[in-house]
């Protein structure tokens, strides 16, 4: 059964253009072509990169962050509470006010104390600045080829294009890097665009695997190059931000924004998508791999638009306030002076169940009756 599936999966019509077979891409006469099984080396490489990343963060990134003045905020630990912890893990991290009131009654706490517990518990799950700095300080280094700047050359003699060793190692490193990101994803900093990041990493791995197997290395290299060009600027911007060099951070973010918009919203659709949609089939008809590859590229373009909207929001805030706001993808650490627990919004709960605070003056007591008589006498005399 496995052999039947393998034979069906690797049919020529799925991966290669019409009238092209796998036998034409076999190594011969000193000409080497990419083969799908070559990518198996990316799996142990991903583990090696993961181990190198952990070692880098511990022995280089962390000391470097402290030397550069990156300091973690002091966090107050929450008191153990089984009821609140169960709700936090199963129901959600941000309960609504009716739920908070119910939980407060169950635990014998005030609403303010319950809000404070959830706020501090959320802060415990947020990574410290030093961890963010370490993650931003390690990015892969990609290679460059002169022919990468001519998209139309990607289809010259395709698919009979030999494999260069430099291109092989670049692909292997990039694939190993993204595989290591997927392995580490559950333990990394979780931002508001976490789902989009997961989609992006999976699409990147599938694109690299498919493009290598179908010998689409040249156009795949262009996609990698465009993405890497702005990623380095973003990581540098985040590192400077954690060091609290605001002016340098603002300048780097503006440069990153320009590079991101130009590469993802101008070059990617006009050069990459154009050549894959039109120039790739100028001498041959479309096939399954054509639709599959372009579908994944279009999904990448949608992610580019999504992240461009986030960047535009930050740029709008910069133009309005004159200072770059915090990364809107990241959760801001909450302080105990948060607006949601302002004392004026909730009366003080006493042990006997009574409510403290200002009370309306009684209207039927002795003092009220005396005051009423004096008022009547004053009115009569007048």
What do you see in this structure?
- The protein has helices spanning 2-9, 12-15, 42-67, 82-90, 97-107, 111-125, 129-136, 165-184, 194-213, 217-242, 246-277, 288-321, 366-381.
- With 382 residues, the chain is mainly alpha-helical.
- Among the domains are: 81-125, Arc Repressor Mutant, subunit A; 130-135 and 148-323, no CATH class.
Helix/strand/pairing class, anyone? mainly alpha
Radius of gyration: 31 Å
Please state the average pLDDT score: 76
Give the end-to-end Cα distance, rounded to a whole number of Å: 109 Å
The topology string of helices and strands comes to: HHHHHHHHHHHHH
Low-confidence runs of at least 5 consecutive residues = 132-143, 338-363, 377-382
Strand content: under 5%
The helix content, as a percent range, equals: 55-70%
Question: What's the overall geometry?
Answer: elongated
Q: In DSSP terms, counting alpha (H) and pi (I) runs of 4 or more, how many helices?
A: 13
